[in-house]
Design a protein that fits this description.
The protein has 430 residues and is an all-alpha fold. It is built from 19 helices and no strands. Bound molecules: 2-acetamido-2-deoxy-beta-D-glucopyranose (3 copies). Keywords: Membrane, Transmembrane, Transmembrane helix.
């Protein structure tokens, strides 16, 4: 285009008017070219990992930050609410406990704490919430809120050494590998373990990096510190992608469907096992399968079903995602029925505000339904709580629950501190 303009210029060189017009065209062309360049650069930096879902991502940093904060606090409140009934692999036993203590209407923050594997005070985080905390603490303490493998591995080992609660297998193994074996990141991580410890760690990382470059590297570094294998990283990456899109303003349902479809446009592809896992979540959401019937064998309160109720992945990840998407109450694409809180057997919450959008009732509904399903309800609760709180905003976390969660005020301060390192608006980030 610019070439033909130039030709015209030469043949009419004498006319002043034409000179003015040509000058105008040149200026216009330069401006247009500059604008095009600027928009390309913006797309490359802000869109580095953001805007590929149908419907634009929110670019308002204030709102992104609110959802990111809600994700971290929602994860922690959900974890504390569930802790008292953690690791009970028998839903009849849970129902029995609730009946005996007159708590069928409100299983959250159950008293007395009844986990068979540890005794923590009511309102405390479970060992999973306690595994999210060091990620938050470590990152908040870095000048730019980053997470590097070697530094984080040292920190995590020291954190576990100080921990007076119950340490699970891979936590203990990494601590010993670092402190006794002198191993460095990533060799300190367990080469085979793929249990739910992986996706619990991604929540503060997503809060920091949503819409910004660096998410994939930070997830890889955090997971490998404790679980040094591709499968653990891949499944955590799937959880991070879903949560990121929700923090950027998309619904949980849309985010899950997008990852199940291969996360087109994402700079880091998802693995085959992720496609299978998320595909199965989408399928069961459409058919409105009760989560109970996937975690447990049909008709049984304790015999594991297809997905199983434990910390083992991909069952734990799938359970968290399906539980979140069902509680969020947004109708499934192509499903006629309203997305029921299918798995919730507690009739008490049936009247909770189940509007079309994730209402303020969705977080509580989802956390309660999940905790009643027992097993590793805490690791599921962490991710499900993060997703529902990010979708519904801070107001969706019941204030009474926040008040009961020990250490939440401190976590709030750390979250603020961490999110300060996000810098300005998404489009301005280079
Ligand atoms: C969560 O699971 C644990 C262990 O399976 C169980 O003891 C606890 O009751 C469950 N929580 C709730 C609220 O059902
Ligand atoms: C562990 O405890 C020591 C001694 O109280 C403390 O100095 C250190 O900061 C703690 N480390 C972590 C990671 O919590
Ligand atoms: C942690 O320990 C509990 C109780 O022994 C067990 O049910 C669960 O599978 C373990 N989880 C991990 C991640 O090792």
């Amino acid at each position: 285009m610019r070439n033909s303009n130039t030709d015209v210029t030469y043949s009419l060189l004498g006319s002043r008017l034409v000179q003015v017009i040509v000058a105008g065209l040149l200026v216009f062309g330069l401006l247009a070219f500059g604008g095009w360049r600027a928009s390309t650069v913006t797309q490359q930096s802000s869109g580095a990992r953001a805007a590929w879902l149908p419907g634009a991502s929110d670019t308002d940093e204030g709102r992104i930050r609110q959802r990111a904060t809600a994700a971290v606090l929602g994860a922690l409140v959900a974890d504390a609410a569930t802790m008292a009934l953690h690791w009970i692999y028998d839903t009849d036993k849970i129902q029995d406990l609730l009946s005996r203590h007159g708590r069928r209407d409100e299983p959250a923050f159950f008293e007395p704490p009844s986990c068979p594997y540890y005794e923590y005070d009511s309102g405390s985080f479970s060992p999973y919430g306690d595994e999210l905390l060091p990620v938050l603490q470590y990152m908040a303490d870095q000048e730019r809120g980053t997470l590097d493998g070697p530094g984080f591995a040292e920190y995590l080992a020291a954190y576990y050494r100080n921990y007076t609660g119950r340490l699970n297998k891979s936590s203990k193994a990494m601590m010993e590998a670092v402190l006794q074996g002198g191993r460095k990141w990533p060799e300190c991580g367990d080469p085979r373990d793929t249990q739910a410890n992986n996706f619990v760690k991604v929540i503060p990382i997503v809060a920091r990096y949503a819409g910004r470059p660096g998410l994939a590297q930070a997830v890889d570094a955090a997971v490998r510190a404790q679980q040094n294998n591709g499968e653990a990283v891949e499944l955590a990456w799937a959880a991070a992608l879903v949560l990121e899109q929700v923090v950027l303003g998309h619904s949980i349902a849309a985010a899950v469907e997008w990852v199940a479809g291969g996360a087109p446009g994402s700079h880091r592809p998802v693995s085959k096992s992720v496609l299978q896992a998320l595909g199965s979540v989408v399928e069961h959401r459409r058919s409105n399968t009760a989560l109970r019937d996937l975690l447990y064998a049909p008709g049984s309160a304790s015999k594991p079903g297809d997905w199983g109720p434990s910390c083992a992945n991909p069952g734990a990840l799938k359970g968290a995602l399906l539980g979140a998407v069902q509680a969020s109450g947004q109708p499934a694409r192509g499903s006629r029925a309203k997305a029921a809180s299918g798995s919730s057997s507690s009739s008490s919450s049936s009247s909770s505000s189940g509007g079309g959008k994730a209402g303020s009732g969705a977080f509580a509904r989802g956390v309660r339904a999940n905790l009643l399903l027992g097993g590793d309800n805490c690791s599921r609760g962490v991710l499900l709580g993060a997703l529902l709180a990010a979708e519904g905003g801070l107001v969706s976390i019941p204030s009474a629950w926040r008040a009961k969660t020990r250490g939440l005020a401190q976590a709030e301060v750390l979250t603020e501190q961490l999110l300060d390192s996000r810098g300005g608006s998404v489009a301005a980030a280079a």
